[in-house]
Each structure stands twice: as structure tokens, then as C-alpha cells.
Amino acid sequence: MDLKITETKTRKELPDDSKLGFGQIFTDHMFNMDYNPRQGWYNARIEPYAPIVMDPATMVLHYGQAIFEGLKAYRTGSGKIQLFRPDRNMARFNRSASFVCIPEIDEAFLLYAIKKLISVDKEWIPRAPETSLYIRPTIIATDHYLGVRPSNTYRLFIILSPVSAYYPEGFNPVSIWVTDKYVRTVRGGLGEAKTAANYAASLYGAEVAKKAGYTQVLWLDAIEHRHIEEVGTMNIVFVISGEIVTPPLGGSILPGITRDSVLTLAKHWNIPIAERPITIDELIEAHKDDSLQEIFGSGTAAVISPVSHLAWHDDVLTVGDGRVGLMAKRFYDAITDIQYGRAEDPFGWIEPVEEE
Ligand SMILES: *Cc1c(COP(=O)(O)O)cnc(C)c1O
Fold first, then answer.
1. Ligand 1 centroid from CA 259, angstroms
2. Ligand 1 centroid from CA 264, angstroms
3. 123: confidence class by pLDDT, cuts 50, 70, 90
């Protein structure tokens, strides 16, 4: 497929690397591509970043038929630009698409388009330590129709956003709120797909947690409200008696690439791992008998997010000594060292974009 590139004549001023935040600033260009049943995916183009003008009857606005991905481009100390396991994001994008009846895309072409887009906007990749360029591919349903069925037409777009270091003041642990009232998703639903709908479903519970003074929600399964699933929009990992324990991908959990990287590293280091169901009761017991050593979330944005406190009913448990655990730090350092080219990549996780 051809990729047409139209560069802007008016480049924006580059932001100050120390004031980026997350997802607030966008680069000069975006990628767009359309789908209709006759042509398939067509009209792939990189063009100036611009609003998408939509008919008010556009289906995505009513029924939420939309998926997305999230990955980052990193600038190494020697000036290389690289991606981390992007083939996994492309494969997951297609998998998410299948869950909400969105037609399949060519993964190799999409990765090529991402690299081209990054090259056009490469000056936007920040240089300060631990900063990166966040990449957001999205597909939305674009038929103008209020009947309920999958759309016949779609728009795929990719936007780029320079983002700050997630931990500007160093690695800091968070307090989380366990809920047996609200649920994010249920087996047989969309939980293992990266859909807009899952995020809509998680907002209310997350606000309740925030109002109670917690950073995130720990989601339990939707049927028994006992099995631990995810934390906020991250996968969750426990260290219990020296073993890495994480819930299995049973249909309601998003298959995180960071989660997979943690498990791969643990195997590589000969640390025992168990992908198995774990209930909140077991966790409380493990805390009581002191075998619960660490809890952390894993996801592209934070990489590793250590958990210091867990609120469950009327109790607030302190995890370990309430400080960042050794394992959390070890995984964080190993993953970010590969991402930023400070360490060897024995797993073939790095995909170069270009050398400066
Ligand atoms: C994206 C996401 C994750 C983390 O996936 P990564 O590939 O590690 O970024 C975890 N849970 C949910 C619900 C997500 O949407």
C-alpha cells in the first residue's frame, strides 16, 4: 500500500522537555487511513495533525465501537530512536479489532506507517532522561447511522505525544482500593481487548477510589468478586514467598506486553513464576503470615508501579515495609535499560526506527 506524506508548512514550537506531562501535547503530524468494504483499508496518509470533523450520527459517538493501542518511542543516549516490542502491539490491535467486529489491518504496514510518522516528527521525541514519545493508534466506526450493528466504514489514525518521565521524583509507591462492588469487565465480555468501552466501564469505580484517597482500583472478578484481575489500567503482579504470582489471562484480563516482559525476565533470572488465579482472601492471608513481599502494577505508561498500601473493607494493609520492593526496582531497571539502549537486548525486543 502507498503511504502519501504531506508535511505541514507551519511547524509548532517544540515544548520544554521538563513540562510535558502525559497525553497533553501532540506533534505536527498524524497518520490516517480509511476503510470501506469495497476498497478495504485505503488512503493511507501522513498529514498535518488536525481535528476529525464528524457527522453527529457517526456510529462511534453512540455505540463506542472503537479500539486503541499504546506504545512508546525512545531516544537512546547515542541518538538512536527505537520501539519496544511493537509487533506485540500490532498483533493485539488486530485481536482487539476482532472483539468489536472491526476489519483486520496489515500489521507490517501499520508498523511501517508508525516508523514513518515518527521519522517525520522525530524532533518531538524528548531528550530528557526517561522521557519518551507516546504513540496512540486508534480505530473508530464512521458510518452515519443510529441502528445497532457493526459499522461498514472505519477510520484508523495514529497520533504522537511527547511524555514526561513517569517518576520525575523517583520511583514512588501508590495506595490502591480493592472493590467488590464495581467491576471493569467480565469473562465473555471485552476485558481482553483494548477497547474504549472498557475504559468507560472503569471510570466510575476509579473516581470512587480517588475520592476515598486512593490512586487506583484493584479489580476483582465480576462473578464471585474474589479473584484478583487488574489494577486500574495495569496488570498486577505479586511477590509471595519469593515467587512471582500473576492472574492468568482468562478472558477478562488485558494481555499486557509489560506483564509478558516481567514474566520473561523472571524466567531468564530463574525466579519461580506462577500464572494462577489468586483471591483477595489468599492475599490477606499472605499479608498476615508475612509471605506477601511485594505488589506492583505493570503497563507501558509507568512500566512498573509499586503498591505500598491496599484498602480492603475496613482494613488498610501495608505491603512489605511500605517502600519500593527490590523486585519492582529490578524489573523496572531491566525493562527501561533495554528500552533506552543502556543494556543488551537478549530477547529481540527492540525495533529500531532510524539512526540520527
Ligand atoms: C494497556 C493495558 C494494560 C497494559 O498493557 P501493556 O501492553 O503492558 O501496556 C493493562 N491493562 C489494561 C486494562 C490495559 O488497557
1. 8
2. 17
3. very high
